[in-house]
Design goal:
Length: 137
């Protein structure tokens, strides 16, 4: 009797579409071919054949990397997005929640104070203009 191992977590099993490749791999390899072949054919006219092949490899290698990269079940796009958000949108130094709330309260109070100050100066300017117009008549 044949023995076939069945994984416990079926989410990790990927469906193969054609040539024993997933849909993501088929799309990635197609994009690499669409970028690489014209690059090779164009560069072959100006440089020797071996250097044109190097240009082909340099042009397609990032696409192959993005297509095949997977870490902790995340594709390259999701993984890069999380790294980007971590580097640029999270504070470098963690602050206690109480301190953060106090800072937010202070910032909103400062903003409200500035708005009210701007409104009061605008009202004073408009009153001065009205007073100046009334005296001219």
């Amino acid at each position: 009797m044949a023995y076939v191992p069945i994984p416990k977590d079926l989410k990790k099993v990927k469906t193969k579409v054609a040539f024993n490749l997933t849909r993501r791999q088929l799309i990635g390899f197609s994009v690499a071919a669409l970028v690489g072949i014209p690059t090779y054919l164009f560069m072959r006219k100006f440089v020797p054949n071996d250097i044109a092949v190097i240009f082909l490899i340099v042009a397609t290698l990032p696409i192959f990397f993005i297509t095949l990269f997977e870490k902790d079940g995340l594709t390259f796009e999701k993984y890069f997005k999380y790294i980007y958000l971590h580097k640029f949108y999270q504070p470098g130094k963690r602050v206690r929640r109480e301190v953060y709330l106090e800072q937010e309260k202070k910032n909103t109070a400062d903003k409200l104070r500035k708005k009210s100050k701007n409104l009061s100066t605008k009202q004073e300017k408009s009153k001065k203009r009205e007073d100046g117009k009334g005296k001219e008549k």
